[in-house]
Amino acid sequence: MTLYEINDKIIDFMNNIEVDEETGEILTDMSQLDQLQVAHDEKIENIACFIKNVEAECDAIKKEEINLAKRRKTKENLINRLKNMLSYDLQGSKFETPRCKISFRKSTSTEVNEDEFLKYHKDLCTKVETYKYSKADLKKMVQGGIALHGVKLVENKSISVK
């Protein structure tokens, strides 16, 4: 029986109590009300215990998420170290076997001398706690022919392992 059903039965019971009009004595057997009240209290206790169990599961899941995030970060760092090692060893040369293919493609990153850039281009920044700028936007501007003090495009090679 659900908590709602128990509450409905208690209300029905209370609405149907028979009272002797002359003496005011309650004629209805009140033991059924006691049983309903015990069932009500047990149901509330069970729901509260269930809530505690679900909260414990949520805490365990949260801890596992943190542990998994740490493991993922460790693995990502390992990947980056290994890619850097391969990049250093191959010096931009291609490498291919039946099991893997390593190639390099040109990429461009944006290097910003913040002091010089801010001296001339504060209008391109958004102020949060310090000035912020979008390297992607600056890259587009420089590629479009706009000269920005403190900004230069640097050719890089990024590794791709498939």
Structural account:
By secondary structure, the protein is of the alpha+beta class. The chain contains 4 helices and 5 strands, in the order H-H-E-E-H-E-E-H-E. The protein has a 3-stranded antiparallel sheet with strand order 1-2-5. Strands 3-4 form a two-stranded antiparallel ribbon. The radius of gyration is 36 Å and the shape is elongated. The two termini are 58 Å apart.
Helix content: 55-70%
How many helices in DSSP terms? 4
Structural class of the secondary structure composition? alpha+beta
Mean pLDDT: 90
Order of helices and strands: HHEEHEEHE
Radius of gyration, whole Å: 36 Å
What is the strand tally? Answer: 5
Largest sheet: 3 strands, antiparallel
Report the β-strand fraction as a percent range: 15-25%
Distance between the termini: 58 Å
Strand order of the largest sheet: 1-2-5
State the domain count: 2
Low-confidence stretches: none
Shape: elongated
SSE topology sketch:
Layout lengths: L2 H13 L15 H60 L4 E2 L4 E12 L1 H8 L4 E2 L3 E2 L2 H9 L7 E11 L1
Antiparallel strand pairs: 1-2, 2-5, 3-4
